[in-house]
Amino acid sequence: MILPIVAYGDPVLRQKAKEINEDYPKLDELLENMFETMYGARGIGLAAPQIGLPIRLFIVDATPFEDDDDLTEDEREFVSTFKKVFINAKIVEETGDEWAFNEGCLSIPDINEDVFRKPQITIEYQDENFKKHKETFDGIVARIIQHEYDHIEGILFTDKLSPLKKRLIKGRLANISKGKIDVSYRMKFPMAKKKR
C-alpha cells in the first residue's frame, strides 16, 4: 500500500526517533509499504518519520545510480545491488574531506541543493531480522545513508545549507508546508487548508 509522504513543516520530521524491537507490530507489512511508497515516488531512500512514524527505521535502494556516468565500474556494480533496511541505526564515525552533492528529499519536493558531507561512514544497525551489523560505506551509498539517517535524528538536508540559501528557499518551503505544490505522489501537508 502506498502511504502519504509527510511534507516539510510537520513536527514528526523534527523529532529524534525512538528505537524499536522485534515486537514492533506488523513490521514486515510496514517495510513492504515503505518500499512501495518509495518506488511510487521514485525515491532512493525513505525514513519512517517521512510517513509519520517517529521510529529509527529507514530503507535505501541505490540501484537508480547504476547508470551514473560519474561512478567507477566498481561503484556502479556495488550500487546496482544495494538495497537495505536499517533499524536502530547509529553512525559511529564519519571520515574524509567533505564533498558537495546535489540532494533532494521526498518530503521537500522540487528543492534540490548542494549539501556537503564526509565521504565515508561507519554505521551500526540492525536489519529486518534484527541481526546486528557494523559496516563502512563510502561514496554515493554513504551519502544516501547519511541523508536518511538525518531523518531519524530530526534533521533535514535544508538545515545544512548556508544562511543565504535558507533565506532564498524560505518562501518555497512555506508553500510546501501549505500544500501549494504539485507532486506526482501522495503527500500529507501539515498546514494545508481543509476543504469544507
UniProtKB/TrEMBL annotation:
Active site (UniProt): E148
Keywords in alphabetical order: Hydrolase, Iron, Metal-binding, Protein biosynthesis
One of the GO BP terms on file: translation
Family annotation (InterPro entries): Peptide_deformylase, Peptide_deformylase_sf
Residue positions binding Fe cation: C105, H147, H151
Assigned EC number: 3.5.1.88
Alphabetical list of Pfam families matching this protein: Pep_deformylase
Broad EC category: hydrolase
Cofactors required: Fe(2+)
Cofactor note: Binds 1 Fe(2+) ion.
Catalytic activity: N-terminal N-formyl-L-methionyl-[peptide] + H2O = N-terminal L-methionyl-[peptide] + formate
MF-aspect GO terms: metal ion binding; peptide deformylase activity
Protein family according to the UniProt entry: Belongs to the polypeptide deformylase family.
Function: Removes the formyl group from the N-terminal Met of newly synthesized proteins. Requires at least a dipeptide for an efficient rate of reaction. N-terminal L-methionine is a prerequisite for activity but the enzyme has broad specificity at other positions.
Protein's recorded name: Peptide deformylase
Species: Pukyongia salina
